[in-house]
TrEMBL record:
Gene3D superfamilies: FAD/NAD(P)-binding domain, Protein tyrosine phosphatase superfamily. It comes from Acuticoccus sediminis. This is TIGR01244 family phosphatase. Residues 4-110 form the Beta-lactamase hydrolase-like protein phosphatase-like domain. InterPro entries: BLH_phosphatase-like, FAD/NAD-bd_sf, Prot-tyrosine_phosphatase-like, Sulphide_quinone_reductase. Its cofactor is FAD. CDD domains: PTP-bact.
């Protein structure tokens, strides 16, 4: 515990525990404000635990959770209200104390001189210069004057962001375009399954971000804090404001490792791995090579997730490796799926079931991973089949491959762009926002009912580019997205079931059936995945070359014939 005095009424602190509350009472505090959301860290106590300890010694409490890096204008108002209502002195805490100090600083805007606010925060160990502009603006995010402005602004420089930037640049060199992303490295994530299967080396899946930003496109190396779509503005960390004529939102999704209790502490050791992280995929292959006998568990969380086939791809490649080594009969394989089907498009299930049977894998449906005890080698699942009472099942393991729960990023979920579930709300054909006409979205973050795959983004990027340029030219939307997604299911080393489908599970094969029948395992599909798709990704998709991805024109709606009279 480290209370840091801001003024006579408030001190701020990093995370406290229930055991600290009695000491806070002894130090003279009369109230506690929690600014850290429950579940942000695996080792943090819940607010209920803090509140119970506070009640026991007579301290008042208030729960004002703030997502990391996202202090909204209204949050400062709520903090000021709490300070006015609670008995003082008050202790406010979050993970490090920074959010609490920021809330206080913004809440004092207009009540104290700016230098006095900055000095008080600095004396407590918190540098508030990053929000000085907001403080000077009365505690409000200033969007009237921009630090920069672009004709087209893209949020996110993953597969979708770079691809759409390149497609836009290929269509127009006269419009200013910028991409916002804080990352230094860009990853070819579809390759991580192959890394975990011992086929690819991890380094071939990574390149520097700077080497991929298209010529003529500005890279803003920063994180987004908030959207102000009514003012055509994006707020960056540090309160810089970037304005736009058109906005494209594609930051990907969030891997929510913390939602599985105990998982973060044991990842990369104790036989716990995941192909969903660059640094862990090599550990998957290490574990596969070393396992001789025991139980191997592969998990899949509730949808939506990126590349819904990836969890079972890891199972097939691992089982194939064990089969080739002659140890498969000594390994008990379980595929624990929170859903109720092996794959969402039924046409591909028969071929997959052949391999499930060949590898003697058990399919444990409606099993959602909720906790992992790495040292004890135990995984706990909530099991809830339809019309049955939920129960908890704990399984021992020697090998555990985890697909983490996934959500939209925090700054998307709390934004005006999100639907009720937290995803960017778009028209599923044009990918234009349903509320804001000058905003589009693509990739994993938007709410169209398609598979979240790089192949989907490859098809979406030209559609968005075409429609953005059409809008700039005062034309109607010109292109539509049919829900295409592709999932090359690596059922064994050297063979793939090439699942390609669109909205409603409609099959969307890219090749004639005599060349590649996607419903059956194919060696040619393996060569496509191993040899052709990486260069297509790096040299075509991210360069604006739309091979097999030309945008489909919007079909005109037939008009009823005019009647006489």
């Amino acid at each position: 515990m480290d209370p840091r005095r801001i003024d006579d009424r408030l001190s701020v602190s990093p995370q406290i525990t229930a055991a600290d509350v009695a000491e806070l009472k002894r130090l003279g505090f009369r109230a506690i404000i929690c600014n850290r959301p429950d579940g942000e860290g695996a080792d943090q106590p819940t607010f209920d635990e803090i509140e119970a300890a506070a009640k026991a010694v007579g301290l008042a409490t208030r729960y004002l959770p703030i997502a990391s890096g996202i202090v909204l204008d209204g949050d400062a108002d709520d903090f000021a209200l709490a300070l006015g209502e609670l008995p003082g002195p008050v202790l406010a805490y979050c993970r490090s104390g920074t959010r609490s100090a920021t809330l206080w600083s913004l809440s004092q805007a207009g009540r104290r001189p700016l230098p006095q606010i900055l000095a008080a925060a600095k004396a407590a160990g918190y540098d508030m210069n990053g929000v000085a502009r907001r403080i000077a603006n009365g505690g409000r995010t200033p969007t009237d004057v921009a630090d920069a402005r672009y004709d087209i602004l893209i949020v996110g420089a993953g597969a979708a962001g770079i691809a759409v930037a390149a497609s836009l640049r290929a269509r127009s060199e006269s419009h200013s375009i910028a991409v916002i992303d804080p990352a230094d490295i860009h990853y070819y994530q579809p390759g991580w399954t192959m890394v975990g299967g011992g086929v690819f080396e991890p380094q071939i899946t990574a390149r520097t971000m700077g080497s991929l930003i298209p010529d003529g496109v500005t890279w803003i190396k920063a994180a987004v804090a908030a959207f102000e779509p009514k003012d055509d503005a994006v707020i960056l960390d540090g309160c810089r404001v970037v304005k736009y004529g058109r906005l494209v939102v594609c930051p990907g999704l969030k891997l929510d490792w913390g939602r599985v209790k105990g998982l973060e502490e044991t990842l990369g050791r104790n036989g716990v791995t995941s192909n969903y992280r660059y640094d862990l995929a090599p550990y998957t292959w290490q574990l596969v090579q070393s396992l001789q006998r025991g139980r191997a568990i592969f998990t899949q969380p509730p949808m939506p997730i990126k590349c819904a086939g990836a969890p079972q791809k890891a199972m097939y490649l691992s089982a194939d490796a064990w089969n080739r080594r002659g140890v498969l009969d000594d390994i008990d394989i379980h595929f624990c799926n929170a859903g109720g089907v092996l794959f969402g498009v039924k046409d591909y299930v028969p071929a997959l079931m052949t391999y499930v049977s060949a590898y003697h894998a058990s399919l444990d449906f409606f099993h959602n991973l909720v906790a992992v005890d790495g040292p004890a080698r135990q995984a706990t699942f909530e099991v809830k089949a339809p019309e049955t009472e939920a129960k908890t099942v704990t399984m021992d393991f020697d090998f555990l491959h985890v697909c983490p729960p996934q959500t939209a990023p925090d700054f998307i979920r709390v934004s005006p762009l999100a639907d009720a579930a937290g995803w960017v709300d778009v028209d599923q054909a044009t990918l234009r926002h349903r509320t804001y006409d000058n905003i589009w979205s693509l990739g994993d973050v938007m709410n169209a009912p398609n598979a979240k795959t790089a192949a989907a983004a490859r098809k979406q990027a030209p559609v968005v580019a075409e429609n953005v340029i059409a809008d700039i030219q005062s034309r109607s939307p010109a292109a539509q997205y049919d829900g295409y997604g592709s999932c090359p299911l690596t059922v064994e080393r050297g063979k793939i079931v090439l699942a390609e489908f669109g909205y409603g599970g409609a099959l969307k094969p890219s090749f004639p059936r005599w060349l590649i029948d996607g419903t059956k395992p194919s060696r040619l599909a393996w060569l496509l995945k191993e040899r052709m798709l990486p260069p297509i990704y790096w040299k075509a998709m991210l360069r604006g070359r739309e091979w097999l991805a030309k945008p489909e024109k919007i079909q005109a709606v037939p008009q009823p014939p005019k009647t006489a009279g």
